[in-house]
User: What shape does this take?
Amino acid sequence: MRDAGGRPTSGPAAGAPDTEEHGKPVALWLVDLLAGATAAEDAGHEYVRDARTRRLAAIVDMSVASAATPGGLEVPDKRRFEELLALPVEVWIDDRHLRRIRLASDMFAETLELWDVGGDLGGFDWSRLPDAKAGRCRGS
Assistant: This one.
């Protein structure tokens, strides 16, 4: 959604994760963003809410994710278009569920936890992704 001046009123560009767009909470756009994952590497194990999870450092191409998402995705605040082709994302999973997604930059940060409902990992095949290139993932 946009205001009269064309500025986003919801979504990552507006910094309003609790508003709704296209009938779903805007924070869920981070799940849609994973459809554009182009690389991932193991970043170790961490405990999230007392549960052992595996953390992955991934690279996401927003153009791929937007094309795979009905209605597309709003563009987060970035300085250059090329940054949207390689967004660093962190993903935490346990043996059965997607538990947390975090997208952070110098302009904004957004984290989504899927704890009470979980996100089924059946549709995600992380093994198909090449290892992230050195310097393209935070913490690598």
